[in-house]
């Protein structure tokens, strides 16, 4: 086998819901010697390996299978072949750099691969892997001071349930006890959950690296599930009343538990796709509470089912510019929403409304959203 792509050795590309540093070992129970206290381990094959030439090698352990296949999201199935010891393998070429969700099929039935990284996406536990992009290493694990990730529980008066959120605190948070921080509420997209910005988005590594380089402010980041269903609710694209969960339950909890600044100039919200729509509707409805807004793969034309019309704020450009310190619009250049967001940005400019348009190559995927948040973080809370 050819050598592994050097960037693919970085642990951030392998840390996920099952592993931080994958333990590709298993016990050979046939060789266990209880009297000598010997427990021999044998090496497992990694589910996905990216080679130095860009080829991708897939392995799947299925000793009794009749067929094993792998398929990228929206792509054809490719057959794996048996290679001994119950493993199946295939090597694929020509896959572009970036983030790739993919499925496995054993005897025609879709399954997941425990030897490949996991996340929650497309409403399911799903495997992913990455082909390193040598020009963008900002989301990799680097030798810099690291912040902390904390899972917090709070009660929701809206859903009647206990909810959890993930909170990033910057390096030094637990030592600099007199220091208070601005706070960013960061939302995932449809079919994902509150873990998306961690496992897939690598937001903690992005923040660590930017803070270490002095390219963004130290901040607390809060990641919530955007789903706030009531038990009987099934039909809304924006599920439940997340606006009320955030404003009435989560923000008071965070401001009571963490050393965050509580004025609007130090409170931001951003999100991707569905989270961008939620960000737009919440921040515009509560413009007195948010001064910094980030919309990744979103639109300014989405409609609210509530009584207010968010677009009325655009009728008063001077007041909007005074209230909103940053309206950031991020979009992949191969997304369906690319032309509309360029047009909406131009219309805002013609009206005299300040906004920042950031675009980069890519589709509706984490490759774009990481780049978007990376650009947004360098602007938020900075004048």
From TrEMBL:
Q: Which Pfam families match?
A: Esterase (PF00756)
Q: Name one GO molecular function term.
A: acyltransferase activity, transferring groups other than amino-acyl groups
InterPro entries named in the record: AB_hydrolase_fold (IPR029058), Esterase-like (IPR000801), Ig-like_fold (IPR013783), Ig_E-set (IPR014756), Mycobacterial_A85_antigen (IPR050583)
Official protein name in the record: Enterochelin esterase-like enzyme
């Amino acid at each position: 086998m050819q050598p592994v792509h050097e960037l693919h050795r970085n642990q951030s590309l392998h840390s996920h819901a099952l592993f931080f540093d994958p333990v590709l070992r298993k016990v050979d129970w046939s060789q266990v010697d209880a009297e000598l206290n010997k427990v021999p381990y044998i090496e497992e094959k990694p589910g996905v390996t990216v080679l130095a030439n860009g080829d991708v090698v897939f392995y799947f352990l299925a000793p009794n299978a009749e067929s094993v296949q792998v398929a990228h999201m929206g792509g054809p199935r490719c057959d794996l072949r048996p290679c001994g010891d119950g493993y199946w393998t295939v090597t694929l070429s020509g896959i572009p750099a970036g983030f790739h969700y993919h499925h496995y099929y054993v005897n025609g039935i879709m399954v997941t691969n425990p030897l490949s990284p996991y996340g929650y996406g497309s409403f399911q536990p799903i495997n992913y892997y990455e082909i390193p992009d040598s020009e963008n290493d900002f989301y990799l694990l680097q030798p810099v001071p690291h912040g902390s990730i904390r899972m917090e529980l709070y009660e929701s008066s809206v859903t009647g349930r206990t909810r959890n959120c993930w909170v990033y605190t910057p390096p030094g948070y637990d030592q600099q006890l007199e220091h208070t921080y601005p706070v960013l509420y960061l939302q995932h997209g449809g079919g994902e959950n509150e873990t998306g910005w961690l496992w897939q988005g690598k937001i903690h590594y992005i923040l660590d690296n930017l803070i270490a380089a002095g390219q963004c402010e130290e901040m607390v980041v809060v990641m919530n599930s955007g789903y706030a269903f009531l038990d009987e609710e099934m039909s809304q694209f924006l599920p439940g009343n997340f606006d009320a969960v955030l404003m009435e339950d989560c923000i008071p909890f965070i401001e009571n538990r963490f050393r965050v600044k509580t004025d609007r100039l130090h409170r931001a919200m951003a999100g991707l796709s569905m989270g961008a729509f939620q960000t737009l509707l919440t921040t515009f409805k509560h413009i007195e509470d948010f001064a910094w807004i980030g919309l990744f793969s979103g639109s300014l034309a989405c409609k609210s089912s509530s009584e207010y019309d968010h677009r009325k704020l655009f009728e008063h450009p001077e007041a909007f510019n005074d209230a909103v310190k940053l309206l950031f619009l991020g979009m992949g250049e191969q997304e369906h929403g690319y032309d509309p967001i360029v047009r909406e940005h131009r219309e805002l400019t013609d009206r005299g409304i300040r906004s920042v348009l950031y675009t980069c190559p890519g589709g509706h995927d984490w490759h774009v959203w990481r780049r978007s948040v990376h650009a947004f973080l360098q602007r938020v809370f900075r004048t």
